[in-house]
Each structure stands twice: as C-alpha cells, then as structure tokens.
C-alpha cells in the first residue's frame, strides 16, 4: 500500500475542496481499503466523508424515502419503513456480505463498489478496467461468473452490488453534489444520462460521475405493489450473485398491471428488464406469460464459453419470483 494523505471533511463544500488530484472519498472503506491492499487503487489522498450529515433515512409524505449516502447498510435493512414498504430493498441488503461488513458499509459506497472480476483484482494480469488498453483476458479465461448482457470486447465484468439491483427495480434516483451544485440522476434509465453506464470502449468508467462528484443520497418513490429479492450464489452466505433478481408485480383480476424487474450478476451494471416489463403489461399473470417475457428479455444475452448457464438460471429465477408474487396477490383476494 502506497503512502497517502488523509483529510476528514466537516461539510460537503469541504469535501469537494479537499478532493484534488488522485483523491478518493472514504465512507465505510469495505471495498476501497481492500483495493488499496491489492494495489488496484492507489489514492494519493483520502477524504473521509463519514461525518457529513447524510446518515438518515427520511420518510416522505407520499410514502417514498430519502436515503442518505452515509446510512450504514445494516441500518437501512433494519429501518421499519424499508422493511414494510420496500421489502425487496431490505432483502437485497441482507443478502450482501456479512453482518460485520454491513455494519460498516454505506449506501453511497455500496453503489460505487468495483467489480470482483478476478483479473481486475490481480495487478499481475492485464485488465482494461484497471489499465485501459491492456486487454480483457477474462473473455478467453475465467469468466464463469461474468457478464452475459451489455458487455463489450473490452470488458465482461459484472457489478457486484445487491442493493443496487433492488434500487434499479425501484426507479431510484441519486443525488450528486459537484462543483456546479447538486443534481439528481436516475440510477439506471432510458432517459437522461443515468448513474451507471455499460463498458463500451471505456470500461474503466463504471459511472457517469465527474472527478470530485460526491453522492449525497438516494431518492425512492412509493412502491404500490408487492416486491421480492432473490439471489442465487455458490454458497449460502458471503458470496456474490451468480444471478439475482429484484422484482415487483401488480396483478388485478389475473392481469399484470405493472411490473418492475432488475437483474444482478449478469452485466456491468444492474440490468433493468425494460423489454420484459413492456411485454408483461396487460398480459395474464401466468407462468407461461412470465416465461415468454423473460425469454424476450434474454434474447439480448451473449454468453461466453463458460457462462451460458446464466441465461437459463436468470429465466428460471425471474419466472419463479414473479409466479410467487402473483400467487400471493391471488391469495390476498
């Protein structure tokens, strides 16, 4: 680990002013410190932002939430409004890492964690995400747990966050403080430039943030339908997703009124299943309809030699989760 300087910011203005040169913001440090130990991240300066006033979850009058970037993951999962109104989000947070890490990790840091691709984390290997232009050995090498959607010839890495998948399904928006003031951007989206981006020919850029930009919070609108998060992994705990799904479904008289579906473990960012949602609107809430919609979404998949299994796994996980949500609503009537 190379020497670095340390500053603790007392305000957002002070944090922005302190972020000069090769600087990194420090929240819980559960990902950044690991990358520093591996030699992947070599900041010249750390700006501690844990004392900034972004550590609360506020309930909005309309039933939405304003989640501060410094909220600890464990506190978010335990918050009463999150558990009652947004069970998918609470379940996603609890599916990630260990209890000790959740006690340290922050919402803002969770959204910005880097990929766990083995080539990215091994500085003895080439990696376009870590060192642009050196190549992507994962394409022909160890890619069994890497991307099947949205990847490029330059990068097949996946985003590791469980929380981000649930927030993508919730149409979350991210508050960002930069040199020109505060702005709000969608986490993922079809419209204005969202936070996350696909690798293209610049895989080193995970997000659309500019140097020095500080995430201050996340906004979530009310969710007027049941939701669930499900994760498939290689072991029962402390493992990243092979495939995960965050889903919400509104069924009236056996017909899908609206659905929200986002996938994890399959792309460079949480993958919002827009095509599937469009296809399900107005469709019967049956397993057959869920299968057809899932397969339509996964037509865009381009699996590699050793991760073809993810296509079927994703389809089955989507169908099972939506079928359970539909069945619950049928039982409630």
Supply the key terms.
333 residues, 5-stranded antiparallel sheet, 4-stranded antiparallel sheet, globular
Contiguous runs where pLDDT drops below 50 for at least 5 residues? none
Strand content: 15-25%
Tell me the series of helices and strands, N- to C-terminal: EHEHEEEHHHHHHHEEEEEEEHHH
Number of strand segments: 12
- The level of helicity is 25-40%
Radius of gyration: 20 Å
Please list the strands of the largest sheet in the order they lie side by side: 4-5-8-6-7
Cα distance spanning the termini: 59 Å
Helix/sheet category: alpha+beta
Mean of residue pLDDT?
Answer: 96
Number of helices: 12
The general outline is globular
Largest sheet: 5 strands, antiparallel
Write the layout of secondary structure elements.
Layout: E1 5-8, H1 12-18, E2 23-26, H2 32-38, E3 45-48, E4 57-59, E5 65-68, H3 73-78, H4 80-85, H5 87-94, H6 99-104, H7 107-111, H8 118-121, H9 163-169, E6 173-178, E7 181-186, E8 214-220, E9 227-232, E10 243-252, E11 255-264, E12 271-272, H10 274-280, H11 287-298, H12 309-332
Parallel strand pairs: 1-3, 2-3
Antiparallel strand pairs: 4-5, 5-8, 6-7, 6-8, 9-10, 10-11, 11-12
Helix pairs in contact: 5-9, 10-11, 11-12
């Amino acid at each position: 680990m190379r020497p670095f300087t340390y500053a603790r910011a007392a305000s957002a203005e002070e944090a922005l002013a302190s972020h000069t040169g090769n600087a990194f913001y420090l929240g819980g440090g559960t990902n950044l410190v690991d990358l520093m130990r591996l030699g992947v991240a070599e900041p010249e300066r750390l700006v501690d932002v844990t004392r900034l006033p972004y550590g609360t979850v506020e309930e909005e009058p309309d039933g939405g939430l304003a989640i501060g970037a410094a909220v600890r993951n464990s506190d978010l999962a335990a918050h009463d409004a999150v558990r009652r109104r947004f069970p998918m989000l609470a379940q996603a947070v609890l599916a990630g890492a260990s209890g000790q890490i959740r006690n340290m990790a922050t919402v803002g840091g969770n959204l910005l964690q880097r990929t766990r691709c083995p080539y990215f984390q091994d500085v003895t290997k080439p990696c376009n995400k870590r060192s642009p232009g050196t190549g992507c050995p994962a394409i022909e090498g160890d890619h069994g747990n890497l991307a099947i959607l949205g990847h490029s010839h330059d990068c097949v890495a996946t985003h590791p966050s469980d929380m981000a998948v649930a927030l993508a399904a919730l149409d979350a928006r991210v508050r960002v403080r930069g040199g020109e003031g505060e702005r709000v951007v969608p986490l993922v989206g079809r419209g204005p430039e969202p936070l996350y981006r696909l690798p293209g020919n610049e895989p080193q850029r995970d997000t659309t943030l500019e140097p020095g930009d500080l995430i201050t919070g996340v906004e979530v609108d009310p969710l007027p339908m049941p939701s669930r998060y499900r994760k498939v992994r290689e072991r029962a705990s402390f493992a990243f997703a092979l495939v995960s799904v965050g889903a919400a479904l509104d069924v009236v008289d056996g017909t899908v009124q609206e659905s929200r579906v986002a996938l994890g473990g399959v792309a460079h960012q949480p993958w919002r299943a827009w095509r599937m949602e469009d296809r399900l609107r107005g469709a019967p809430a049956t397993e057959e309809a869920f299968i057809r919609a899932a397969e339509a979404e996964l037509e865009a998949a381009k699996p590699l030699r050793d991760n073809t299994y993810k296509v079927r796994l994703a389809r089955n996980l989507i169908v099972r989760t939506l079928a359970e949500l539909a069945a619950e609503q049928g039982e409630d009537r």
